[in-house]
Amino acid sequence: MNITARGRGLFFVITGAIFWGIGGTVSQKLFQQYTIDVNWLVTIRLIIAGFLLLTVQFFVKDGSQIFAVWKDKKGGFQLVIFGFFGMLAVQYTYMASIAAGNAAVATLLQYLSPVMIIIYLIFRKQTVLSRQDLLTVSLALFGCFFLLTNGSISQLSVPTSAIVWGILSGIAAAFYTLYGAYLLKRYDSLVIVGWAMIIGGIALSFISPPWKINLAHLTTEAYLYLGFVIIFGTMLAFWFYIESLKSLSPKETSLLGSLEPLAAVFTTVFWLREPFGTFQWVGTVCIIGMTLLLALNKNFSSKTNKAAGKESLFD
User: Are 88 and 46 in contact (CB under 8 A)?
Assistant: First the structure.
């Protein structure tokens, strides 16, 4: 691999991860300062970003794949399931957690998804609990305790609703990871992610039509924030991360992907001035440490890939 290709891969994964993290914080700004509705933002974000990803696929990659997945009945059915229970679920629960609490806690709770996968694989008897798994789960539990209580067992540092949505986001992300792998082995990533976003956005639009909202109170600054969330925090973040896999190993992308929660925490604390206690920083270190540990764990990666390759995974 030449240096140029590797440098491009590093740029893509680092930029994509930072865009993801900052996108969550900018969403919090829209919720808090401009009272943007969560349903509306998720709907618009998914539909526009999904369309843009398919446009990139058409002009930059193999455009014939865009509709090929729908010619495969089984693949099309799985894509609908993935779009609704994977993409929509993970995006909605994540945004709802941000709206109820803050982007830092929501992002860190979503990063507990590997622990959800470990628990699921053990429950399905597809693996046994190893010492490294035990260490991983312990780090996650300690991290959650400090993050959510700031060291005080008498009260929570974030609203209960934010915690519930954040945990659901981690569960949805685990499903997204396991179920999506089967489709991603057969079709281009941009095709699957793009269609999944559109499916999720259209499904939510039946509950919250995106055209039924009054945007007269939004300022130019608010529209710029909205554009950042859709373009940079969603479309480019997904595209850059996928592109990085061409010149970097999955281990490298996983490690550098840990910049997302760091970006979310730092922008939440230093830009939005959200209070963040000493023990919450300890919890952050524990959860990011857990993520790095899993990224370096070849056994976890192989177990996840093996489980994701089973068609009857969620039967």
Answer: yes
